[in-house]
Automatic annotation (TrEMBL):
Top-level taxon of origin: Bacteria
Entry keyword annotation includes Oxidoreductase: yes
Cofactors that this protein relies on: Zn(2+)
GO MF: metal ion binding; oxidoreductase activity
InterPro entries in the cross-refs: ADH-like_C, ADH-like_N, ER, GroES-like_sf, NAD(P)-bd_dom_sf, Zn_alcohol_dh
Domain Enoyl reductase (ER) per the UniProt entry, residue ranges: 11-335
Organism: Cellulomonas fimi
Protein name: Alcohol dehydrogenase catalytic domain-containing protein
Lineage: Bacteria, Bacillati, Actinomycetota, Actinomycetes, Micrococcales
Record keywords, A-Z: Metal-binding, Oxidoreductase, Zinc
Length: 344
């Protein structure tokens, strides 16, 4: 087999199936047969022509699970189920040489800067492949990459057991962050979200949800006697959220910016000073975070079977991107090249 059908981004709001070459496997690399690939906000940015690095003709996708078709000399064995840590770092800059390659000065990703996983096969270096324990559903395994973001956010936050935690945004990252925070001992997790459907999902997962017509600050002040959240996660990256972060967070509280803002926005730095709040940025994850995410999935500790997903056949990739854009019916839209594994 020399060619395969893959999803190819051809222009703004244009993605379809094209015949492409099966990837050649560089020396020392592995060939992975893709099982599932999640669509995230970055993929939507590419789809809508707003990502600065993506080039027309790209095979997107970086939230991958699959099986090692051809093993590298090192790394997971042939036939192993793996998930991908899709970061591409230079290995030369200060962050890379001091153990922080996830914030490389020249960070790239498979599925953005080079071919990704919305195809039957992808070639990858063995160091980005993580074997998944036997018995894990490859569909659930595809959540490891976004879950690693949540693990990293909670780890960076300095959250303490018993904390009152605020989460702005009930998208995939927001609710995964809420799940990890609860698992790590948060006393109460409060979620705010403009979408009624996503609010219902958050409530179904057992979180306190800010009702329509109210604000996070109002609900938190009622719950905490006017103090605010101990730890606040901004997974929405919306200017209206940035404007509320300091008010929603207590004196000496911690604000964690998880979502990526598309442009600079105002933040009340006077309040940060007067309340001695800490503001922490988060970018992707470390290798340890990916390993921890796999452990959480394998252990069933987050009950991710309740996390709403919907799988589309690779041939229906346009419909998959439309569904992901709508943000309804599924928190995570997946694309699969496996016959008979789509939901519709």
């Amino acid at each position: 087999m020399s060619t395969m059908k893959a999803a190819v981004w051809t222009g703004t709001d244009q993605i379809g199936i094209a015949e492409v070459a099966v990837p050649e496997v560089p020396e020392g690399w592995a060939l992975v047969r893709v099982a599932y690939n999640g669509i995230c906000g970055t993929d939507l940015s590419i789809f809508h022509g707003k990502h600065p690095r993506a080039q027309h003709g790209l095979v997107p996708g970086h939230e991958m699970s699959g099986w090692v078709e051809k093993a590298a000399p090192s790394g997971p064995r042939e036939g192993a189920l793996v998930v991908v840590e899709p970061l591409i770092s230079c290995g030369r800059c200060l962050p890379c040489t001091t153990g922080n390659a996830h914030v490389c000065n020249n960070l790239g990703l498979y599925g953005i800067d080079t071919a990704g996983g919305m195809a039957p096969y992808v070639a990858l270096p063995p160091e980005v492949l993580h074997e998944v324990p036997t018995g894990v559903d490859p569909r659930t395994a595809a959540l490891a990459e976004p879950l690693a973001v949540a693990v990293h956010a909670v780890d960076r936050s300095g959250m303490q057991r018993g904390d009152t935690v605020a989460v702005f945004g009930a998208g995939p990252i927001g609710l995964l962050t809420a799940l990890v925070a609860r698992h790590e001992g948060a006393g109460e997790v409060v979620v705010t979200e403009p979408s009624a459907w996503r609010r219902d999902v958050a409530a179904g997962l057992g979180f306190t949800v800010v009702p329509e017509g109210s604000t996070m600050t109002e609900v938190l002040h009622e719950l905490t006697g006017g103090e605010g959240a101990d730890t606040t996660f901004d997974s929405a990256a919306h200017p209206s959220v940035a404007a509320e972060l300091t008010a929603a967070t207590r004196v000496l509280g911690r604000i964690v910016v998880v979502g990526v803002y598309k442009q600079p926005v105002p933040l009340d730095l006077q309040a940060v000073c007067f309340k001695e709040q800490s503001v922490v940025g988060v970018r992707v994850y470390t290798t340890a975070d990916v390993v921890r995410a796999i452990e959480l999935i394998a252990g069933g500790e987050l009950a991710l079977e309740r996390f709403p997903t919907k799988a589309f056949d690779l041939a229906d990739v346009t419909a998959a991107f439309d569904a992901a854009t709508s943000g309804q019916d599924a928190l995570k839209v997946l694309v699969t090249p496996l016959p008979g594994k789509a939901d519709a």
